[in-house]
């Protein structure tokens, strides 16, 4: 058994906010404090991600790599979203968005693939 207290883990600054990570075997957990604005669209070839929204709100847009239509999901406290392998995803953090990500198998930098598609390019909001 391994126990980790998030209070004891230092935050890394990423482009989209601060991230705390733990438990990197077959599954990983990361808490992200998103900065307001639009993140970089990306996808994972090997990882399924779950986003559990803890605080704040925003919008998540997803699109399968094969070019299916863009799906928009409102993010608010309590929402749990599954993002499949090869599904481009991008968030627009509106206010204090804090989320827990669960990645199966564990997240790796090599599996983080930037997308050429901007899912918010033609938004009407």
UniProtKB/TrEMBL annotation:
Name the chain's protein: Cupin domain-containing protein
Please name the source species. Answer: candidate division WS5 bacterium
């Amino acid at each position: 058994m391994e126990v980790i207290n998030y209070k004891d883990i230092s935050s890394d600054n990423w482009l989209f906010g601060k991230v705390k990570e733990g438990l990197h075997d077959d599954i990983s957990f990361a808490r992200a404090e998103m900065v307001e604005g639009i993140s970089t669209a990306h996808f994972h070839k090997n990882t399924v991600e779950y986003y559990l929204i803890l605080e704040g709100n925003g919008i998540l847009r997803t699109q399968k790599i094969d070019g299916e239509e863009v799906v928009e999901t409102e993010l608010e406290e309590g929402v749990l979203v599954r993002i499949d392998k090869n599904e481009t995803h991008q968030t627009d953090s509106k206010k204090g968005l804090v989320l827990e990500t669960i990645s199966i198998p564990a997240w790796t930098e090599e599996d983080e693939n930037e997308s050429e598609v901007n899912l918010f390019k033609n938004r009407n909001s």
